[in-house]
Write a structure and sequence with these properties.
By secondary structure, the chain is an all-alpha fold. Helices cover about 60% and strands about 0% of the residues.
């Protein structure tokens, strides 16, 4: 997923900073400035990879806080049989959705501690 986010960020950067239709664009500010917060004078473009992780973390939080949901039952039966979501690990052959949720959970653990 990181490579897709990097590709999209690269396209955004090229749009704002590169040439189009054989017409050179003026580079008024650095890309880092465009990505800085609006309060700091930037345009507030987001790091798409971090934004994606931030959107995935609530999915993991919901699995933790609503363990009786249908989704939780299905994922527990398939990926974390012992019932401990926080100790679930990536393994070969897991679905893309589960891998993404695990990365969101890891981002949540990194942010708030285990």
């Amino acid at each position: 997923m990181k490579s897709l986010c990097d590709d999209i960020s690269s396209m955004i950067c090229r749009y704002w900073l590169s040439q189009q239709d054989k017409e050179n664009k003026m580079h008024w500010v650095a890309w880092e400035k465009l990505c800085s917060r609006k309060e700091e004078g930037g345009l507030g473009f987001r790091d798409l990879h971090l934004f994606n992780l931030a959107m995935l973390a609530p999915q993991g939080w919901r699995l933790l806080t609503v363990p009786d949901s249908q989704c939780s039952h299905v994922l527990r039966a398939r990926y974390f049989l012992d019932g401990d979501l926080l100790s679930a690990k990536e393994s070969h052959g897991i679905s893309y959705s589960w891998r993404s949720i695990l990365r969101g959970i890891q981002a949540m653990k990194d942010r708030y501690g285990e």
